[in-house]
Amino acid sequence: MKRHAIKFVGGIAASAIAIVLAAPAAAEDYIVDNVTLIDGTGQPNQQAMSIGIDKGKITFVTPTAVAPKVSGQRIDGTGRYLIPGLMDVHIHLQGARGGDGRRMVGKDPKNPSAPIPATAQADAKAARVAGLQALASYLYSGVTTVYDAGNVPEHILGLRADERAGKIQSPRIFATGNLVTYPGSHGDSMAITIDNWSEDKPKLLKYLEEQKPDIVKLTLDEHGWGTRPLITLLPLDLMQEIILEVNRHGIRTTAHTSSELRATEAIFAGIDSLAHPVIQGPISEEFAKLMGAKKVAMATTLTIGEGYSRLVEHPEYLDQPLYRAAYNAAEIGEMRSKTLPAWKERGWTWWMKLMTPIAQENMRMIDAAGGVIAIATDQTLGPAVHREMELLQAAGVPAARIVTIATLNGAKHLGKDDILGSIEPGKLADMVLLSADPTVDIDNAKKIVWVMKGGQLIDEERLPLAGGTQNRRRDF
């Protein structure tokens, strides 16, 4: 453990300015000085702060005036704002799933609940390149942690292994691999299906052993809303058995639900988090209070539905720098010339436009009631995280709250808030330096100076972005 761990709380340095754990060290890897700190916990901005980083972790957080006298590479944060790395706790990384990838998670807009299967002729190398480009778009957008909530195991688990071995430039990857559900239920085409508990339990155990999921995703949705047909529903007694067994292995669970009823049932079946907001209709005040009491984290995933009408009505968003980095010119051209007119003719586009404001208000109510909502996109593109935050701000969620929703709440959703999600001594040094205050306007979270993951500054000029090599944004 590092020698000094100073924690600044409410304007007062703890334990007579410094808590010295052992003899002072000669150097840190980095020291950020004179920065305005937005630490992710929700406390007010702290000005003129210093943060020490060494061996991938945060070693001290203290006013610059009383910071430890240590050497190391010093970064002047004057006039800038330091936040934790952003998180997207629901993606489906492009590549092996096929389809239109970055645009809409490889899903068919005619049947958004079903992934487009990879063809027998799929080029594994091309799939990997597409996945690496998407992962680079997250880092470039300030996102240092992602959770893939269902994918071809060979694709996502291989990338997860490479990320953890330091072989690729990528945010931290947490992954489900295959889903787990009932035959005929939502997502069963890419799931381990459990029909009879006593007979099928070995299938679940084999999946846990072989894929080692960070979180197991179940589905509890019979559809019948929007343009979706009715499908088979996972029985609740079976869901309870699955959750209990997975938790006995020390693994968290999340559930795809879309209504207040099914979300409530999943909570009382023991689910650890919810993969989507309620989108079928307005929630009740009682449900908002339930979420506040239970603290079961709920992913926001507003952009996956809003993205259809956004492209049709406001394609100019593709001109934003983050999108220009994440897409290449040919992709942007195809989206404008082919995808846009196709989506304009689909009823699903306009149904989702109608329902997105309802889901936005549901998210605002849950947050206001003390519930834990976490930024998630259900997509495979870094800039979508910023759109997700914009939609929350448009719904009336204060910008300062959104910073916490995009950082510490994401870590809570993943069960990793002991090591991620805030700028505190002992946590992993994932952080983003901004040139403007995101607590005033969340759009300022796009004004990135640099991104750090695990105590290392991301070299943006080396990121394999689909939009090509980007100039370094930091000035040193």
Automatic annotation (TrEMBL):
<dbReference type="InterPro" id="IPR032466">
    <property type="entry name" value="Metal_Hydrolase"/>
</dbReference>
<keyword id="KW-0732">Signal</keyword>
<dbReference type="InterPro" id="IPR051781">
    <property type="entry name" value="Metallo-dep_Hydrolase"/>
</dbReference>
<dbReference type="InterPro" id="IPR011059">
    <property type="entry name" value="Metal-dep_hydrolase_composite"/>
</dbReference>
<feature type="domain" description="Amidohydrolase-related">
    <location>
        <begin position="81"/>
        <end position="457"/>
    </location>
</feature>
<dbReference type="GO" id="GO:0016810">
    <property type="term" value="F:hydrolase activity, acting on carbon-nitrogen (but not peptide) bonds"/>
</dbReference>
<protein>
    <submittedName>
        <fullName>Imidazolonepropionase</fullName>
    </submittedName>
</protein>
<dbReference type="Pfam" id="PF01979">
    <property type="entry name" value="Amidohydro_1"/>
</dbReference>
<feature type="signal peptide">
    <location>
        <begin position="1"/>
        <end position="27"/>
    </location>
</feature>
<dbReference type="InterPro" id="IPR006680">
    <property type="entry name" value="Amidohydro-rel"/>
</dbReference>
